[in-house]
Automatic annotation (TrEMBL):
Cellular component GO terms, alphabetical: plasma membrane
The keyword Lipid metabolism is assigned to this record: no
Protein name per its UniProtKB record: Phytocyanin domain-containing protein
Residue span(s) of domain Phytocyanin: 23-125
InterPro entries documented for this protein: Cupredoxin, Phytocyanin-like, Phytocyanin_dom
Pfam families: Cu_bind_like
Length: 203
């Protein structure tokens, strides 16, 4: 019985460590989600950041002037807004990063995407290192699988290899400086190791 309790306690502590060290990113920081002056603005914003499963992106923008569309690699590269995987138009749009792999976002209003309002990131596992994987044309990486839009500007979880799931709630998230996600990994590892030592000492 003590062994079961020890295992459960350890798993709870590991889960708590992952939750505590998840990051919330305000996309574009003070610039927010808008048509930027620099075509590479959002690629530069993502550079140096490490996005992990469990992190959250918040897109804040003026209602009716912008939106957030989850798109494929090809649609991202060509600013093709004809068939987005999902579109959210009620700010703030919060997207929970729940799967590893590339994620692509554009604004479908006017020519905003062609003027640089597009973001491509690479999401890694909670214990992994590495960050955004910029490639050609604004930091694009391979295409993600789809997700299904639902009411209220949210999407349902993807079926396989997927994109992201906006929470659909309003409020404010914390701006995270570049590099904090990577440093938090070390903190989480230390916390798990410390918790293991405490549990072992108790039993």
């Amino acid at each position: 019985m003590a062994g079961v309790f020890k295992t459960v306690t350890f798993l709870v502590l590991v889960f708590a460590a992952v939750v505590v060290f998840a990051e919330d990113y305000d996309v574009g920081d003070d610039t927010e989600w808008t048509r930027p002056m620099d075509l590479e603005f959002y690629s530069k914003w993502a550079a140096g950041k490490t996005f992990h499963v469990g992190d959250e992106l918040e897109f804040d923008f003026a209602p009716g002037r912008h939106d957030v569309a989850v798109v494929t690699q090809d649609a991202f590269d060509n600013c093709d807004k004809a068939k987005p995987l999902s579109v959210m138009s009620v700010p703030p749009v919060r997207i929970f990063l729940n799967t590893t792999g590339p994620q692509h976002f554009i604004c479908t209003i006017g020519d905003h995407c062609r003027f640089g309002q597009k973001l491509s990131i690479n999401v890694v596992a909670p214990g992994a290192t590495g960050g955004a994987a910029p490639g050609a044309r604004g930091g694009a990486s391979p295409a993600p699988a789809g997700s299904t839009p639902s009411a209220g500007g949210a999407t349902t979880p993807p079926t396989a290899g997927g994109t992201t799931t906006p929470s659909g709630t309003s409020g404010t998230t914390t701006t995270t400086p570049a590099g904090n996600a990577a440093s938090s990994l070390g903190g989480a590892t230390f916390l798990v190791a410390f918790a293991s030592a405490v549990v072992a000492a108790l039993f």
